[in-house]
Amino acid sequence: MLLRSIFLAVLWIGFVGYAFLLAPPDRPDTLDLILRLSTGKFDGINPLIVNLFNIMGVLPLAYGCLLYSDGRGQKLPAWAFSAGSFAVGAFALLPYLIWRKDNPQFVGPKNWVIKLWDSRWLAIVIALAAVTMIYLGFSKGDWADFVQQWRTSRFIHVMSLDFCLLSLLFPTLLGDDLARRGISDRRIFWIVSCLPLFGTLGYLLWRPPLPDNSAPPASTPA
């Protein structure tokens, strides 16, 4: 666990340093682009950028499906990091992953928040939204324009790297989530881990529900 935390801390520091010191400079139209993307005014914007921006709002939902049950056994407020990830992605999520403790057990009962994030219906919505955005981005997007913007715009550049990080970091929560659901087959962990994003979506659709009405183990009399 210590080595994992050290690796994630180095990754977070490196990502922050790269984003502010080495990434391409900000462009004068960046704020206007963010406002147009946020308000759905997509005319004239490369569909690749539109759907990349949109999927950066879907990935935190996928993480939320694990974070809220994981947070039940943590001192850290998982909801705060989950909320932050909607705004700044891995910048907010990595500190939680660095400081969290292993948590392979879920102590119920499940409240309505846990039930919502554990819902199969939410998993279906997340998967459909993500697959639709990937399809539209790849089929409608202008790749030459995207590469040019990736080279010249800090916003596009860092958002693309953020997407890659969120797609790859999911296994840091996966092992404990499998354990909380009573799944011991390590092949599932490796299948999901080796298929970034699509493995995540498949896992959310497949995973069995968390146990309900479980209680902490009884203390042994002295």
What does this structure look like?
- The protein is mostly helical and 222 residues long.
- It has 12 helices and no strands.
- It has helices spanning 2-22, 30-38, 47-70, 78-88, 90-99, 112-117, 120-140, 143-152, 154-168, 171-180, 186-193, 198-206.
- It is globular and about 50 Å long.
- It starts with a helix and ends in a 16-residue tail after the last helix.
- The model is unreliable at 214-222 (pLDDT under 50).
Question: Summary?
Answer:
The protein is mostly helical and 222 residues long. It has 12 helices and no strands.
Distance from N terminus to C terminus (CA atoms, Å) equals 31 Å
Contiguous runs where pLDDT drops below 50 for at least 5 residues = 214-222
The percentage of residues in β strands lies in under 5%
Biggest beta-sheet profile = none
Shape: globular
Cα gyration radius (Å): 19 Å
Question: Helix and strand string, N-terminal first?
Answer: HHHHHHHHHHHH
The percent of residues in helical segments reads 55-70%
Class based on secondary structure composition and strand pairing = mainly alpha
